[in-house]
Amino acid sequence: MAKIQIQNLTLTYQSPGKSYTALENLNLTVNEGEFVCIIGPSGCGKSSLLSVIEGLNKATSGKVLIDGKEITGPGKDRGIVFQHYSLFPWLTTVGNVVFAMKQNKIKGSKKELEETAKHYLTKVGLADAFEKYPAELSGGMQQRVAIARVLAANSSIFLMDEPFGAIDPKNRQELQELLGVLTREESKTVLFVTHDIDEAILLADRIIFIDKHSIQADIEVGIKKPITKAELIDNEQFRTLNSHLMSLFYRGVAENIGHEVYL
User: Fold this and answer.
1) How would you classify residue 208: left for phi > 0, otherwise alpha for psi between -120 and 50, otherwise beta?
2) How confident is the model at residue 258 (pLDDT cuts 50, 70, 90)?
3) Helices (H), 45-168
4) Looking at residue 85, what is its pLDDT?
5) What order do you get walking across the sheet with 69-70 strand by strand?
6) What's the pTM?
7) CA 46 to CA 55: how far, in whole Å?
8) Which helix (H) or strand (E) holds 230?
9) pLDDT tens for residues 1-10?
10) Under a CB-based contact definition with an 8 Å cutoff, are residues 132 and 92 in contact?
């Protein structure tokens, strides 16, 4: 069943005497419970697309529908995780998660909300950090809080923009594998922007390659998920798909040399 429908979407940025097209006549359907990764050269419009789906940026033309209804702005059905963790520094990990739950109008007593927050913090491996503040946490731990926050807020859609881009390789792999498990356990629909081809193959059911302001390839991954990185690198299908995506990616980069591109 279609969860997100993007129809004839064009996004043009205006500045004095000039206009820049970030996305042009883009069409995409994402089914309920599907994990879709969006890749492409820098400046191809990946983050711009996510911003329109978030409701933070208004399309120049076309529309985005969620569950068949056109979006008009941000909504509690969409949970957002950015590369920068955006935690409130004056709140504990539990407090940050409870705050998100209250913003999404989740009802319950203070104790009930805190217990739910602790449940999801435990699921992301932070059972010993309930009362810690963001400044006491590593980058990887802060991003775990951000994931717990959107899980607890019970949004049906996760919009994730390079969420692991600033995290060291070991923690990045742990978070990738954790996210792959949790989003499927919780039946979330995920749109995940990344520059990392291996990350896209590890996580995605489908990979969308964007270049020249539009979708150039829509690829079914066809590898059973969730999967660990160790299992993935021994998979022959992974190597074939990686090679194909690399060719798309670097062909797009080569064609864009000498041309101005915009996020």
Assistant:
1) beta
2) very low
3) 46-54, 93-103, 110-123, 139-152
4) 64
5) 18-31, 2-15, 61-66, 69-70
6) 0.89
7) 15
8) helix 229-233
9) 899 999 999 9
10) yes
